[in-house]
Design goal:
- This protein has 141 residues and is mainly β.
- Helix content is 0%, strand content 38%.
- A hairpin with a 7-residue loop joins strand 2 and strand 3.
- The chain starts with 8 loop residues before the first strand and ends with a strand.
């Protein structure tokens, strides 16, 4: 904007914040901030797409069942960092089989399969946040 205008120098001071912009000058722009001063930035809100709105192409097949997170929390594939995962791609599961843990407010919530079948895809990376109703697993029934 400065290059396209006829302004050669611009400076503004608000409280302890000082900004000076010079066109065609060999000096760099200077910004002085005093301790205790606040800088407020204006941001533009971007549209948010929740994971529940993103449907994998695999769910178009009628024999695939989604296991969704019943709560907001952190997804863990194993009961401890050094333990084996509850389930792998290719594992056969039945109703009641523990698939993962979703930690919410320091409580470990076991997520169980509600159908019998084979796990064909794990949709979430270990130790990542999940949203309510976000698909976690695809099971071929």
């Amino acid at each position: 904007m400065v290059e396209q205008s006829e302004i050669t120098e611009f400076s503004v001071q608000e409280g302890d914040l000082k900004v000076k912009i010079s066109k065609n000058s060999h000096q760099a722009a200077q910004v002085s901030i005093q301790p205790g001063s606040e800088i407020v930035r204006q941001t533009t809100a971007l549209p948010v797409v929740t994971p529940a709105e993103i449907k994998p192409a695999e769910t178009a097949q009628t024999n695939l069942h989604e296991i969704k997170s019943p709560i907001v929390g952190t997804f863990y594939r194993a009961p401890a960092p050094d333990a084996d995962p509850y389930a792998q791609v290719g594992s056969m599961v039945s109703p009641g089989t523990v698939l993962c843990i979703v930690e919410a407010m320091k409580l470990m919530n076991e997520i169980e399969a509600d159908v019998s079948g084979k796990i064909v895809k794990i949709l979430v990376e270990n130790a990542t946040p999940v949203e309510y109703n976000q698909p976690l697993f695809l099971i071929e029934t």
